[in-house]
Amino acid sequence: MAKVTPFKTPMREQLPEERIKNNDEVPYGYSADEAVREAERCLQCKKPKCMEGCPVEIDIPGFINFIAEKKFKEGIMRIKEKNILPAICGRVCPQEEQCEKYCVVGKKNEPVAIGRLERFLADWERNEGKIEIPPKPAPTGKKVAVVGAGPAGITVAADLAKFGHEVIVYEALHKPGGVLVYGIPEFRLPKEIVFKEVDYLRNLGVKIYTDMVIGQIKSVQELFSEFDAIFLGTGAGLPWFLEISGENLNGVYSANEYLTRANLMKSYLFPKYRTPIFKGKRVATVGGGNVAMDSARTALRMGAKKSIIIYRRSLAEMPARNEEIHHAQQEGVVFNILSNPVAFHGDEKGWLKEVECIRMKLGEPDASGRRRPVPIPNSNFRLSIDVAVISIGQSPNPLIPSTTPELEIGKHGNIVTDIKSGATSMKGVYAGGDVATGAATVILAMGAGKIAARNIHEYLMKN
Fold first, then answer.
1. Which CATH number fits domain 143-237+395-462: 1.10.620.20, 3.30.420.10, 3.50.50.60, 3.30.750.24?
2. pTM (2 decimals)?
């Protein structure tokens, strides 16, 4: 057996000083030679641990072996047996906490770059124009409504179509993709890639209707006059706020609004695209997750002279992916750690001018396992800013829960589901993704979608 090289094959990317001036994707992806070289690091374990960390059950050693043998078509087909969104997952999924975390190579060296290899195959297929659609099964005569065209809904729709069911997807926004299009910036996940993956779904026979706000245009109860089963995948669209004074000043945004305006509605091209956003010169983003990194990095591309992260813990506790933190640091984002806002201050016209913070220290671990931030008395200080982006989390979209009394709702506004099936308290209605769990990752939403699809199929065949 050849000796395994200790480090991942590097991925080329835009220089920081160049990429903050555009919205183009930062990493370029692997070339064929780079992908083969990285694939050859895989040990092809007889009992692969990496698969234990994959929520959608991809045959990871299988597709990597095809890359090593330069059989790229076979490799992408192996992935698509389980995952119809490989170009997306290869870019935004936290592989370091999932499949790569269990990689045997990673015991002594850097793990195999599973995510980068998945992205390579998806990009190869798209660039070659060789996307293959599986043969359509015989129709079952059953009809399913999927509410929400995010990761969970797309996954459910694809799997149910492969079972032979008629599937119609209802999306509230004007573009399908959910958080993939409104929440993740162009420089991290190009919209063209999302729309290509959605086209694959259409080629499976799934119909997608946009600008359809279920809960207003139609209720869940009314859908049952047309459908045999329903899946709810409406995501986590209700942002949390700090609930401090001055939060209603002009220039204070939730991360949901800020990223939706900037990414999906292209505020960076205003007035060509008519969704304005205030382009601050000094922007502070409150929070330490991936959404916070996306917001802080977006601010630079919107023209901010200074982009600041305000986070109440230290870098070690920051929940964002290491890659996102690294890219933000490269691009010049300032990390103001161990501090927390206590008030926003504005001018006489109601525009934001300053954020007042208090210094924090770390105490004993809390329920999350991270050390609890504790305020330091009399340590207040102020920062001059003109835009603030609040990125401290979000709850499930409340529209369907509030209009569907038959659904059991959890204390955080989530739709209560059976973890093993995705079934809700309402017969024939299933749910998954952020609307059930609260804000989580793309791949976990897809995993919930696969579980729900299997159980919806079983329910339909029995009824």
1. 3.50.50.60
2. 0.93
